[in-house]
UniProtKB/TrEMBL annotation:
Keywords: DNA-binding, Repressor, Transcription, Transcription regulation
Organism for this UniProt entry: Natronospirillum operosum
Boundaries of every HTH lacI-type domain copy: 11-69
Protein name, UniProt field: LacI family DNA-binding transcriptional regulator
InterPro entries in the record: HTH_LacI, LacI/GalR-like_sensor, Lambda_DNA-bd_dom_sf, Peripla_BP_I
Signal peptide location: none
Transmembrane regions listed in the UniProt entry: none
CDD domains linked to this entry: HTH_LacI (cd01392), PBP1_sucrose_transcription_regulator (cd06288)
Gene Ontology MF: a single term: transcription cis-regulatory region binding
């Protein structure tokens, strides 16, 4: 199964909500014709016009209630601490329903005994397969019961036993972000990373280094700083770069929250983005488009990974040789570079 299946951009309910100037809940209520919620006629019309203009494809409707749908299990360690798990689940649910399957989600909190209990329940129920997902891209040791069912790992990979997994192509994402800055003429590019024990931080840094080397730009280690993937780290490290008297014309922040702090520090010093210093983020969180100027960033394909995992589970390839698939992290260019 080719990783290209994760590269197609599709219109989401979030896009419809943004275009119509309403919340995703409002879009959901309108599309599902919920009548016990007070939504004005004008608002309903805006939503429907946005759906038509964007060519938003709703989930298949009209399946008979009496039909017993096959179930796919979705096991995830955390949901509430990050928006990304919810996006992956939504993508998997859409793909499952498209195939006439239901998605059953369980959050484990990394409790090994709870994982085993859920997997045993699903085994006895005869689920079609199980998606095993981690909130952080990392190596995992899945419980033995997982190998007894058709399975796929999402945003993680197995340390020992062979499992098929799908993860973001972080090295290429870091390369693309840095290359976008280089193509704009920036040469002194600082990099504020996350905590280096995280695979995402290591891989994005590798992509940054590879891009500079490929374009013949010397790597200045003084321009590389370790942050914490939070605004506080972006703010602190941006000020440190400025206070150290280093010359740089762009900053690549390893995630969008880091870029929020970077923006704050630059504006505090009276520096304009991108006129004085350009800023690139990573992961395309909701806040990126609301910063001033709107933040250029890289999209993490969480929705696409969820969709890919379901399509893989239901394909003949799921019995083939196990490997790790990496999905493209596409650039989202806005006004900050």
């Amino acid at each position: 199964m080719s990783s290209d299946s994760g590269n197609k951009t599709r219109v989401t309910m979030k896009d419809v909500a943004r275009h119509a100037g309403v919340s995703q809940s409002t879009v959901s209520f309108v599309l599902n014709e919920v009548t016990d919620v007070s939504i004005g006629a004008d608002t309903r019309q805006r939503v429907l016009e946005a759906v038509e203009k964007l060519n938003y494809k709703r989930r298949p409707q009209g399946m008979a209630r009496s039909v017993s749908h096959p179930i796919i299990g979705f096991l995830v360690d955390e949901i509430a601490t990050s928006p990304f798990s919810a996006i992956t689940i939504e993508g998997a649910q859409e793909a499952a329903w498209r195939h006439g399957h239901l998605l059953e989600v369980a959050m484990t909190g990394e409790d090994a005994e709870y994982e085993k209990a859920i997997l045993e329940k699903w085994r006895l129920q005869g689920v079609v397969g199980v998606i095993y997902c981690s909130i952080l891209t990392r190596a995992v040791t899945p419980p033995e019961q997982l190998a007894q069912m058709r399975n796929v790992l999402v945003n993680c990979h197995a340390e020992k036993m062979p499992y098929t997994a799908v993860v973001p192509g972080e090295v290429l994402g870091g390369f693309a972000a840095t290359e976008a800055l280089l193509n704009k003429g920036y040469r002194r590019i600082a990099f504020i990373d996350g905590e280096m024990w995280m695979e995402a931080a290591k891989d994005r840094l590798t992509g940054y280094r590879n891009a500079l080397t490929t374009h013949g730009v010397p790597i200045d280690e003084a321009l590389i700083r370790e942050g914490n993937f939070l605004p506080s780290g972006g703010y602190k490290q941006t000020l440190t770069l400025l206070n150290d008297g280093l010359i740089f014309d762009a900053i690549f922040c390893a995630n969008d929250l880091t870029a929020v702090g970077c923006y704050e520090a630059l504006k505090e010093r009276g520096l304009r983005i991108p006129d004085d210093i350009a800023v690139m983020g990573y992961d395309d969180q909701e806040i990126a488009q609301h910063l001033n100027p709107a933040l250029s960033t890289v999209l993490l394909p969480h929705r696409e990974m969820g969709q890919w995992a379901v399509d893989y589970l239901l394909s003949p390839e799921s019995a083939d040789t196990k490997r790790v698939y990496k999905l493209e992290c596409p650039l989202v260019l806005r006004e900050s570079i």
